[in-house]
Specification:
The protein starts with a strand and ends with a strand. The protein is elongated. The chain has a five-stranded parallel beta sheet with strand order 5-2-1-9-21, with no helix packed on it. Strands 11-18-12-13-14 form a five-stranded parallel beta sheet. It has a three-stranded antiparallel beta sheet with strand order 6-7-8. 22% of the residues lie in helices and 27% in strands. With 360 residues, the protein is an alpha/beta fold. The chain has eight helices and 26 strands.
């Protein structure tokens, strides 16, 4: 009789884990996936091309309906999980249904940070996290108007570029004194800002937002210096936090993320976690490459014998060195390695291509 494997979350990390697991041992588990979104698995890295109009939702689907059917996997869409009971080895969905498990994988991802500014609940204020957000922005952009994006990191800049492609007037507001400060030194950031301004995207760095204006919908924002700017859409792209509440409520060990060991095992036997929701050796990851490494590790863990013996294909997760890439048409930007304000620009590999691409 097959073991019951339940997976909470249907993002890129658990999707990749399933691919590895099916390759290693396709017959061991009866698998059910619980997805909060009403969709199949899609590539979130490609949301920016969808926003810019270069791709459609259908173009970025990773596992379609047929894939789940072919592999005998039950996908429960629009079914968030409300509770985990480690003692009884079962979960309860938001609909009140209870499902038993032999092994459980938590892949709840992360939650976007919403700055609790006055007016943050107004219609027209969005985060940039999933396809629903993209659909909302595309619909808003049909009316034209002006958008303000709070956050000059990867997602914020990709949102700004996409909204500009859709015909909106766009302003990027960033608290730090240069864009992408976690990936770029000031010299490289200056070149990036020049490129965005060349595209007629306004950039305001070292700027703090204090209030979102509007009565029945967002109409603008006010800054710490007292100045204001109008907008019909406000997008917050200021970071993410691991989604740990479900695990924490179940009594699992949680710090910033759900604590896991090198095998992706949580503090509770039979429960594993991977993706943006986890913390491994004091590190949380928000980029896809280390999440795919976690996926490979967890697949090997789930195929180990239940008697505790270890097979030769064990592949522990030892952490990862991350790199980032900005997905904006005409701008090639890749960042890796270490930098600081004291390093000179020559420490980065910077090349201006003939078509004015930026490579880092």
């Amino acid at each position: 009789m097959k073991e019951k494997l339940l997976i909470i979350g249907n993002g890129m990390a658990p999707g990749r884990m399933l691919e590895h697991l099916l390759t290693l041992d396709a017959d061991r588990y009866d698998i059910s996936v619980f997805n909060a979104e009403p969709r199949v698995n899609y590539n979130r890295l490609m949301l920016s091309p969808v926003l810019s109009g270069d791709k459609t939702y259908e173009d970025i689907i990773t596992h379609d309906e047929q894939w789940y059917a072919t592999h005998g996997i039950t996908l429960r869409r629009a079914t968030p999980v409300a509770a985990i009971d480690p003692q009884q080895q079962c979960i309860t969905t938001c609909h009140g249904d209870i499902y038993d498990y032999d092994k459980l994988v938590i892949a709840t991802g992360s939650n976007p940070i919403i700055i609790p500014l006055p007016g943050h609940n107004l219609p027209g204020v969005r985060v940039y996290r999933d396809l629903d957000d993209v659909d909302y922005m595309l619909e808003t952009a049909k009316q034209g108007g002006r958008a303000v994006v709070i956050g000059g990191g990867l997602l914020g800049l990709e949102a700004a570029a996409g909204l500009k492609e859709q015909g909106m007037d766009v302003c990027v507001v960033h608290l730090c004194d240069h864009l992408m400060e976690k990936q770029l030194d000031s010299s490289a950031s200056y070149l990036l800002q020049e490129e965005f301004e060349r595209r007629h995207i306004e950039v305001r760095t070292a700027t703090s937002t204090t209030e979102i204006l509007g009565e029945t919908a967002v109409t603008g924002v006010r800054f710490a210096d007292g100045s204001e700017t109008a907008c019909d859409l406000l997008v917050m792209a200021v970071g993410i936090r691991p989604a740990t509440k479900l695990a924490e409520d179940a009594g699992l060990s949680v710090n910033r993320g759900i604590l896991v060991d090198d095998a992706m095992q949580t503090s509770s036997p039979g429960i594993y976690a991977l993706g943006e929701c986890v913390e491994h050796r004091d590190q949380c990851y928000g980029l896809v490459a280390p999440l795919y490494d976690m996926a490979r590790t967890l697949a090997t863990t789930l195929t180990q014998p239940d008697d505790g013996s270890i097979t030769t294909h064990t592949e522990p997760f030892n952490g990862a060195v991350t790199a980032t890439k900005l997905k904006v048409n005409g701008v090639d930007l890749y960042s890796a390695g270490e930098f600081s304000d004291e390093l000179t620009a020559s420490k980065a590999s910077l090349e201006l291509q003939p078509r004015e691409d930026i490579v880092l």
